[in-house]
Design a protein that fits this description.
Blueprint (H helix, E strand, L loop, with lengths): L5 E13 L5 E9 L2 E7 L1 H4 L3 E8 L5 H6 L6 E8 L11 E2 L9 E7 L4 E3 L1 H5 L37 E3 L3 E13 L4 E5 L9 E6 L4 H6 L1
Antiparallel strand pairs: 1-2, 1-12, 2-11, 3-4, 3-6, 4-5, 7-10, 7-12, 8-9, 10-11
C-alpha cells in the first residue's frame, strides 16, 4: 500500500502567481492544517494500518466525541487515512504544510458547488431545440428521451434534468507552486472543487510517475 498521508484544509480563493521566469499562472490558495494525529490504527489490533487526523478546534462536541479525543484538543473535523507507515506516527503529533514542497504533485478532494435542480442545457451542455418553425415552448427541452414500442421505457443512465453539483470530486496532479509554513498556506496551480471556505483534503499524488514506481 502506498503512503496516502495528507492534510485537511480550507479553500481561501484564487489568484495569479508569477514565477521567476516571468510566466503567470492561475493558482488556488489553501489554508492547509495544522492537523493533529488523533488515532493510530495497526493491523494487529484493527486489521489495517491507518491514522486519523483532526482539523480545527471546536467547542461544540458531544461526550462520545470528547471521550474519543481524550487528552487531545477538541477537533471539529476528523479524517482517516490509510498508510503503510502508521507506526511512525503518534497521537498528538502535529502535521503541517511542511510535508509538501514546491514542485510536488498533489491530489485535492472536495465537494463541488451545489447548483440545485438544473436542466439539460446547463447540466449536460445540450443545444436545445430550434427557435423557429412554429416551435414556441421547447427551446431548452431535451427532445426525445425514448421510443414507444421498443424498448418501451427510458434507458437507465440517460442524461436528463436533475440535481447538479454537490458531488465529491478529486482533482489529480496539481503542481505545488509555493508553500508558506508560517501562515499554513499552500498555493496550487489550477482550480479545485468547492466554494471559498469549503473543506478540502490534500494528499500527495497517487497517479504520478513516482507513485506508480513505488507500487
Amino acid at each position: 500500500m502506498a503512503t496516502r498521508i495528507g492534510l485537511l484544509g480550507r479553500k481561501v480563493g484564487m489568484t495569479r502567481y508569477f514565477s521567476e521566469d516571468g510566466t503567470v499562472a492561475p493558482v488556488t490558495v489553501i489554508e492547509a492544517g495544522p492537523c493533529l494525529v488523533t488515532q493510530v490504527k495497526s493491523p494487529e489490533r484493527d486489521g489495517y494500518a491507518a491514522i486519523q487526523i483532526g482539523f480545527e478546534e471546536s467547542k461544540r462536541l458531544n461526550k462520545p466525541e470528547l471521550g474519543h479525543l481524550k487528552g487531545l484538543p477538541p477537533m471539529r473535523h476528523l479524517r482517516e487515512v490509510r498508510t503503510d507507515d502508521a507506526t511512525s506516527y503518534q497521537p498528538g503529533q502535529r502535521l503541517d504544510v511542511s510535508m509538501f514542497k514546491a514542485g510536488d504533485l498533489v491530489d485535492v478532494v472536495g465537494v463541488s458547488k451545489g447548483r440545485g435542480f438544473a436542466g439539460v442545457m446547463k447540466r449536460h451542455g445540450f443545444g436545445g431545440g430550434p427557435r423557429t418553425h412554429g416551435q414556441s415552448d421547447r427551446q431548452r427541452h431535451p427532445g426525445a428521451i425514448s421510443s414507444g414500442t421498443t424498448p418501451g421505457h427510458i434507458i437507465k443512465g440517460l442524461r436528463m434534468a436533475g440535481r447538479m453539483g454537490g458531488d465529491r470530486v478529486t482533482v489529480h496532479n496539481l503542481r505545488v507552486e509555493m508553500v508558506d509554513p508560517e501562515r499554513n498556506l499552500l498555493v496550487l496551480r489550477g482550480g479545485i472543487p468547492g466554494a471559498m471556505g469549503s473543506l478540502l483534503f490534500i494528499r500527495k499524488g497517487l497517479k504520478t510517475r513516482e507513485a506508480r514506481k513505488r507500487r
